[in-house]
Amino acid sequence: MSLLSRLRAESGPYRGAGDRLPDWGQVTFFLNGAFEPDAAQLAKLAARGVAIERTPVRAVSGTAEVTLQDGRTQSLDGLFVLSRLHSASPLAEALGCAFEEGPMGRYIRTDMTKATSIPGVYAAGDAARMAGSVAFAVADGAMAGAAAHQSLVFGLPLAA
After folding, report:
1. What does the DSSP 8-state code read for residue 126?
2. 64 and 79 in contact (C-beta within 8 Å)?
3. Residues in Cβ contact with 78 at an 8 Å cutoff, skipping those fewer than 6 apart
4. Tens digit of pLDDT per residue, the chain (160 long)?
């Protein structure tokens, strides 16, 4: 089993993922020029038998065939990819909402009640979370709905 990952240096929560995958079979970690493990991470990956491939990926085709920039091709049993997310709507940006940069892309900054930096504007789900998750999106939506209802009944919270 192999891993294609475009991890950025700031993607701390994802740095340890490669060390758990060897339980599933042979693993190759394609760095693709986006991430360089430090010495401790390299030692941990080596201890688990993870192969490190530093040559950039040119293409992925077929079921799971990786072609590298130098022309080598690796046929794999499986492929995991960390993709970047992009907002489908410009609305939050047009309203002036503040954004954060995460390992998977930009997302709307919210507080615990899913309130954005703009009073009366709430955001939930993938638009306001570092990583996509249906379960978290549902929970975020419930929280945002309750907070929006509360603001309509009792008024917007006072600025801290």
Report:
1. G
2. yes
3. 1, 2, 24, 64
4. 334 443 333 333 333 444 555 567 788 889 888 778 999 999 998 998 899 999 999 999 988 899 999 999 999 888 887 777 788 899 999 999 999 988 788 999 999 999 999 999 999 988 998 777 889 999 999 999 999 999 999 987 755 4
